[in-house]
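Here is one chain, start to finish.
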Amino acid sequence: MPDTTRDWMHDQLDDHRSVAAAAEHLLPAVRAVGDALIAAYQGSGVLYTFGNGGSAADAQHFTGEIIGHYKRDRRPLPAVTLSTDSTTMTCIANDYDYAEIFSRQVQALSRPGDVVAAFTTSGKSPNIVNALRVARENGATTVLFGGGDGGPAAEYADHLLVVPSSTTPRIQEMHTFMLHVISEMLDAWADGDEEYA
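Its structure:
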């Protein structure tokens, strides 16, 4: 079979490898987020996730791994993705402002002991920034899956998982890696396996 790959494809793969290597320093922060979620689940905490566009898909992916499972057959853990409730989102956008679609939900739902995780490549979207601010005001633990310098959203994050890149695909690829590592930790914890502790 002839090789039909193009130079730009190899460039994309090289760029992915480069960003992955540069993000290795985030592993202790990834572990800290996993530990924060375990602490939340040892109480009666809930994980709330959200994002825009592809980041909304990443937020849903994370929630799916937590409620379903990653690799092990274990009990479901409580998690909610705020962008999946189209009725509530459009109601808030229509009656208030699009910038409040997540913050009003976070204000209504989050409590101390919960974890609120935002997925964003820029950290600049007002609906992301507002929601993290409100989550912190409510006493929830806040997590930013971001990129670049984290943008204004970084100010309201207790845990920063900020990928050292300004390229959306590379940032989202690393977000997927990080949510999978955290999912592996939660699977192991819920299954009583100390290997990943």
